[in-house]
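Re-running the complex after MR caught last week's input typo. The corrected sequence lines follow. Everything else is unchanged.
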Amino acid sequence: MSTQTSNDRPNAAPPLIFELGQEGRANRYVEEGRPLDQFLPTSLLRDELPLPDNSELEVVRHFTKLSQRTFGIDLGFYPLGSCTMKYNPRVNDAMASKREFAQLHPYTPDEHAQGALQVMYELERSLSSLFGMAAFSLNPSAGAHAELAALLIAKKYFKDRGESHRDKVIVPDTAHGTNPASAAMCGFKVISLPSDERGRVSVEEIKKVVGPDTAVCMMTNPNTLGLFEDHIHEIAAAVHEVGGLMYYDGANANAIMGNVRPGDMGFDLMHLNLHKTFTIPHGGGGAGHGPVGVAAHLVDYLPTPYVRATPAKADATASNGRPLAPSDAMTYELDFDRPKSIGPMRSFWSNFAHAVRALAYIYANGADGLKKVSQLAVLNANYVRVKVADFLETPYPEICRHEFVASAQDLKKATGVKALDIAKALLDHGMMAPTMYFPLIVPECLMIEPTETESKETLDHFVEVLREIVETARKEPETIMAAPVKTVVGRVDETRAARQPDLKWEPASA
Amino acid sequence: MYTPHTQADIRAMLDAIGVGSLDELLAVPDAVALKAELDIVPALPEYQIARRFEHFAAKNAGVDFVSFLGAGAYRHYAPPAIATLAMRGEFLTAYTPYQAEVSQGYLQAIYEWQSYICLLTGMDMANASVYDGATALAEGTIMAINANGRKKVLVSRAVDPNYRAVLKTYCDGLDIAIDEIAIAADGTTDLAALKAAVASKEYAAVALQTPNFFGNIDTLDADALAAVRESSTVPIAVVSEAISLAALATPASWGAEIVVGEAQSFGVALAYGGPYVGFIAATKEHMRRIPGRLVGKSVDNDGRTAYVLTLQAREQHIRRERATSNICTNQAHCALIATIYLALMGKTGLRDVAALNLARSRELATSVSAIAGVDLKFTAPFFNEIVVDVHQNADDVLAKLRERKILGGVALGRFYPELSTCILMNATELTSTGDIEALATALSEVVHVHANV
Amino acid sequence: MAQPADLLYSKEHEWVKIEGETALVGITDYAQNSLGDIVYVELPRVGKQIDQFGNVGVVESVKAVSDLFTPIGGEVVEINGALENDPAAVNRDPYGAGWLFKVKLTNAGETGNLLSAADYEKIATE
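Corrected-run output:
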């Protein structure tokens, strides 16, 4: 292990942008403007604008320094469970930043935005086929946003059927926190369902809680323990039997592509996190993209707008004589006139730039490639699982899907070293820590998702580093508890941050 | 694609796991196994992907038209330095900064974003961003509902119709009723109607947009603010053209307690509607109710300045069904872009942009209102958008302008049936005198031709 | 820390100190210790009628949040305003400076539903 001490840390935090610059050190990006009071009475104008003026070089250095104090997939292994931190192909960004996409105004009339609409249509059709849904809406902005859309759809569907008394949403105890939070935003009451000893929802348990007041059962499959819910069709049958709807949380869709479909498992509603499964860069926590998908009986309720296609002339051919894909012979429009729709979820139609990225990724893989993606994601997770089981407890020692959980509980009892300490020690080795303390049912949980884009060498290296950390923890636990020591700062005082919130810079005079 | 496995790797890994094949690894019960043929195009090599998207790009002719489209999404100059910095892989490929020790740079950038939003709006605090302006309004309204427990909200009809539609979507889920305030003849919110409505003390919040959807400056006056305060209604300001914050009196100065808005104007690409970046700012009384991530400044175990996500107990991953919102993903990368934009423009540049928007939109107003059969609909002071009445079906007029490769604006009839002869037109620093002359010429032909039919 | 013998306790780890017609309420040492560093306490509004064992607020630590149940019913007549700036008082001195709110009792008989220090000790050490 390293003998480096925390005194060797590379450099201090750069000054805030507000502490740099001089008034009048302006960059000439646009012409000089006339005084504002030539346009509006001073009563409508602000008194002062206390922002810094910085040279472009100063700004470039500032944000370059900030980037160097930030860890991304491009710098190293990122096994953050439930987040699918796979490689983000650069061709996707190149396509999304094409001028004809990046500068296209959302109110451009359909006839002059056919290319953009076609991108949305092709993505929507591909996702529908891949996941066995009748249709998707690309409207929601992220996974939690799509969850909310799905529950609003359920609420409206039951209202139209005169079944507004259905107010219970069933959520397994391994579910993501967004599930119960989304349910609460629709006025549903949450019923938490305990997992069985196999880490799954049992058919007996579900039969105990379903009834005439059941609205929706929200499931993640594979679940957040990385385990496939192998009784899913019986669970779905039990929920459908009482008239409820099944919702698929697509956070773990990277484990199932081309192998098994939510539609075939009996789900009526689902969302995808395109920023997980379809390689959209996470960008430090967004923007994401979260399409919501539905079975045939719920299509009318999807958020607006919906991209509708009608065949144009049948004999269309490309200028270079190449045969056209069927979608090239269509005319597209944004359909806002959908009376049963829950309405729009956001200002404009979709996170379109991300739709471009996701479609580019689908093109790069095709159906067979996407299936391979899931297979290799599962291969990588199981490979790491069996190796990690040598030195850490794995509470569910069976074939997992794209991720698995390990527990540091025994280690903590023996040495005092917690999952958090292991996570921090990994940071000293140039790796991101796994997700910690989730799902809530596994004590001292480390949730590891390697993703398919990592090589065997990277996985072997990770396992060796983790082994070394655990061995060091047994011999000299204080070393691990002091980690990280090589990062630009040590452990941050979160209590102080929360007790005395300092959420913004203030001018010195204030 | 993008998987590094050799056949030998796969074999060795399967052996280590103790299974015979990949199919065995992914076995599922027959009842749910995939039986359908997937309808997905075969894989393309990378150069073919590029060709395919060039084909799509060529079908977006609208991007080359002279454009006066605004209405919640604005064309502004974005210095290339923004993309150079924001597209650095460290920023682009990071996740939410849960591990503060290796995320100090991004956390500091978000802290700077929060600071910029506070300086621009005059509020005490701002969050790390939400999806966009419309969702910011919905989430900000829920903050107010949580503050006083009332089950109705009041919204001006001059708030962006898309924002109001999204608010309705959210409120339907929570069984919250929405009432709307009428628009006065000058194109601003009818404050007399507002005062009368809040007097009922039934409303959790009252939302006004400034500049409003028609481009007009639209705030509470002292009387209206007194009535709002008297009724314990939370005043919400909506800002969809963020450049206006550089020029206009801050929402704080006219009494807003919560400011919600869209920061797309700060260097974020139009991109046919997204991703954009919403913000929520508020007075400190609302601190515990603000949704989404917050970055705070603290120290590390050796006393060094360090930034960290804070007040997380408000959030869904801890509070679950009791959370202030279900939001998880925010728009960090778009917020980063906006922060870099603000740093590059600075006070001087931002003031210049605001002044140029004021100047060009006045040039546009003067030019089109000089045309026979074309009038300005409203008289209130405006920022960079105007409502133009062509006294005939606005959709027809816009279609004829498109034949001349001009996107003349947004027809208002789809949102306001009584304004079916009106067009919302926007001018920014990118609108040239030539553009305005081209529009005026075309408009005079189109409107004139129609008048003679 | 031993449980003060002059207080009554609830199974949800709150304590009550009866002072004539009013009662002082707080959380126990065991509760503050399990929550860790407390950063915020959301208390009921003064004047609010609260029912015994009802949910009246929230105690937040850095990464956990816990419902606050009142061990006794009545009208809230005072809250510990000092906690707004110093929530750490609940950690430092849960039975003293870290008290939460004061209630004017509706039904003094409700104390019969509470535990003695000795009985609570058994729950807290389980």
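None of the earlier attempt is carried over here. The first strand of chain B starts at residue 66 and ends at 67. The radius of gyration of chain B is 25 Å.
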